[in-house]
Request: fold
Amino acid sequence: MKKPARTAASQSPAQMSALDLWLTRISWGLAALMVALMAWLLVHHLGGTGSAAALSGEGDSTVALVGLPENLSIPAFDVPDFQPAVYRKASLRTIIPTRERDEVTIYTVEQGDSIFGIAKSFDISPETVLWANYDVLNDDPHMIEIGLDLKIPPTNGVYYQVQEGDTIESVASKFKADPDDILTWPGNHLDIVEPVLEPGTYIMVPGGQREFRQWVVPTIARGRAGVNTTIIGPGSCDTSAGGAFGTGSFVWPAGNHYLSGNDYWSGHLAIDIAAGMGAPVYATDSGLVVYAGAIGGGYGNMVMIDHGNGFQSLYAHLSQINVRCGQSVYQGNMIGLAGSTGNSTGPHLHFEIRYFGAFVNPWQVLP
Reply:
């Protein structure tokens, strides 16, 4: 019969003590052997034992390294010219983060400026610029001139001078705006709890709007006998004899097919086509010249053509007029030269299209 195996728990205390003693001795022996082996390898690697090498330090102190050859020296620590790191050039300028404006800016009109172009550069609507400068422009975008200072609001809306008796609610109602937008606009500096509007001061009405006072020359239709030239202007005449009729299609009235000033918007019912001084201006369609001469309203030298089908076209700021009132012209005929007469900050062609007296966006009929 096979005897059961003896476990550690079944061994006597004397036997366990002897075993622990031998294990401890063996462990220490192995540790001493490993230390000796490492010392031998170190000495062998350095070429054997030698005298101490003295290394100079600060002052008169020295550090002795035992086991190093006498001719061994440690090189000086030098920082290399190139460091493998991300290079960042020092900048002496502090870049201030851009923030939205909350105050009005003053802009001085320069040559070639237009209300549309100025508004675009400040990222606001042209209506906002026109409304803020009623005292100098009188709602007429053609009234700008070089050197004129314009108030440029910080956001779209109405820049309004407070009148006696105004309240936040009455101003908001007048300009179809939200009272809270007026109250909380930072540039208005109003007490939210007890707001007080001081007469004579200006406030911004964000999102506000009002009607324009339009400045346009009247539509002149053909066939009007006995036209009063003192009312319309010296370039009008009797066109009752009639003349050429339009084709119903339109061509560009200038060589350039892009703008250099105002686009078509509620305060400017025309487009300003890029045209240098003296550039030819063409009839956009066939018709009868019903006005050719100087006229008020900032238009300068102007030609108006009635196309006989409900459409009229108008060409303003001309430096020279090559047709006369009552003359028939045909599509593509040269009728004058571009210029900067009237209220203009630079040469261009102010071009209008009307249909039975109503203004039409020229972009809708030009090819």
